[in-house]
Write a structure and sequence with these properties.
Elements lengths: L15 H7 L2 H4 L3 H17 L5 H18 L13 H13 L12 H37 L4 E6 L2 E7 H25 L14 H4 L5 H9 L15 H6 L2 H28 L6 E2 L18 H24 L14 H23 L2 E2 L1 H7 L7 H9 L5 H17 L9 H5 L7 H4 L5 H6 L9
Antiparallel strand pairs: 1-2, 3-4
């Protein structure tokens, strides 16, 4: 069995079933490069605190440099022999530099080691998500620019409501994704990276009385080929540092909200792509077919985005449930935060990228949209305000137009085709040549004002 970071107190080998059950390297290998970064910092701290000689520190840095190059290779695969990625790196380092590696764990615990690596991973991946979200926003803005002036039916309860500009419709989603980016940025800023918490009670005074400036840290990284910026903060409460997983919960929560927004946009596009609506044409490259029905063109990408929202919600609930009854401080249950966290980042990043490509190739069927805009019910509210402008109280005007619409439906006659005397049976304020102009989507949208349009 592989060498562990612990074991002196035990008199027999771990049962193979326990080895398999507790192993996490098959997923926490994603933390490899961040663990190496933490080790480089720790070497610098130990050297400054005189726990390591200059020669020992140099040897460890060289060994970590080799490991860093290996773990950042896309083909990196540590196998499943070791318990976790932290054990793998320690064992590999010992193979490379010998007994000097045995000093690396001075004033250190896997508890704070895991938190350090996880936080650094989160900060990096938050920026990836924010970048991907910005690319999707850019694609939506481009779609607005390509369809300037296009008016579509707006919906409430999935029923024709009022005409709206397509750009305003799409900007609603742009605003959502903008909030998502800001939310993630706020979370990232609140993730404080520190070292020295130990297992829970801190580390020897000598080991935490260091004062390494950011510039020195950068030089440490550059010397072995690592390009990172880390703003270390002082450990305020070591028990909280090793037991806190609020940042994981906040991230998955924010990603769940982002996934919900992606699902809503996908649902709109799915509906718009149906024959019943036929507002849009999704590029063949983003659709699939049927193994039985040759005519089918299915929006599977959008349906999977919609479906994956449930996976994100499940990830959030799983971590909340895992944490809800844990006593201070560290408990092995907390190992189970990794897979939901990694999964959430990966799913949302993939969704953002594939949806950006779909949006960039989306085409609008303007003729079909124009047909939908002929529906007179879209202009019922404009008729209400026509009467309001003629000094009829809103509720009375609302009732008049409601009766007019019902008469139109029951008698299968459009309002604009009714003779003026029939219109005046509903209100003597009606002038046919005036209300006919209201059944124009351009007149309708221009009559509405907001504080600021999304353009």
């Amino acid at each position: 069995m592989a060498k562990k970071l612990w074991g002196g107190r035990f008199g027999k080998e771990t049962n193979p079933l326990v080895e398999e059950f507790t192993r996490s390297i098959h997923y926490d290998k994603k933390l490899a490069e961040y663990d190496v970064v933490g080790s480089v910092l720790h070497v610098a701290i130990l050297e400054k605190c005189k726990y390591l000689s200059k020669d020992e520190a140099a040897k460890l840095k060289n060994g970590l440099s080799l490991i860093y190059k290996r773990v950042t290779d896309k083909k990196f695969n540590p196998g499943t022999r070791d318990e976790d990625i932290h054990t793998f790196i320690q064992n590999e380092l010992q193979k490379n530099v010998g007994d000097a590696a045995l000093k690396l764990h001075t004033a250190r615990s896997r508890n704070d080691q895991v938190v350090f690596a996880t936080k650094l991973y989160c900060k990096d991946n938050i920026e990836i998500i924010r970048k991907d979200a910005l690319s999707l926003i850019s694609a939506l803005i481009k779609l607005c620019d390509e369809n300037t002036g296009l008016i579509i039916p707006g919906f409430t309860h999935l029923q024709h409501a009022q005409p709206v500009y397509l750009k305003d419709y799409l900007w609603a989603y742009i605003m959502m994704f903008g909030r998502d980016r800001n939310r993630l940025s706020y979370i990232s800023k609140n993730i404080k990276i520190s070292m020295g918490a130990g297992a829970l009670a801190g580390t020897p005074i000598k080991a935490v009385s260091y004062n390494i400036k950011t510039e020195e840290l950068l030089n440490e990284f550059k010397s072995i080929g690592i390009s990172k910026y880390i703003d270390l903060t002082v450990t305020v409460n070591s028990l909280d540092v090793v037991s806190d997983r609020d940042f994981v919960i906040e991230i998955i929560s924010a990603l769940s909200i982002l996934a919900m927004h992606l699902s809503r946009l996908s649902e709109d596009l799915i509906i718009w792509a149906t024959k019943e609506f036929d507002f849009i044409e999704i590029d063949d490259a983003y659709c699939t077919g049927s193994s039985l029905m040759p005519q089918k063109k299915n929006p599977d990408v959008l349906e999977l985005i919609r479906g994956y929202a449930g996976r994100l919600y499940g990830n959030l609930v799983s971590v909340l449930t895992m944490m809800k009854g844990l006593p201070l401080t560290y408990n092995r249950d907390m190992q189970l935060d990794k897979e939901p966290l990694f999964s959430s980042f990966e799913i949302v990043s993939s969704e953002l990228r594939v949806l950006e490509g779909l949006i960039n190739t989306l085409k609008f069927n303007k003729e079909k949209i124009a047909e939908h805009l002929k529906d007179e019910s879209l202009y019922a509210t404009d008729l209400v305000y026509y009467l309001v402008d003629k000094r009829i109280p809103f509720k009375e005007a609302h009732a008049i137009i409601g009766k007019l619409v019902k008469y139109s439906i029951d008698n299968e006659i459009e309002i604009k085709d009714m003779p003026e005397d029939r219109l005046k049976e509903f209100s003597d304020k009606f002038v046919k040549k005036e209300i006919v102009k209201l059944f124009d989507p351009r007149v309708s949208v221009k009559s509405k004002k907001s504080i600021k349009r999304g353009n």
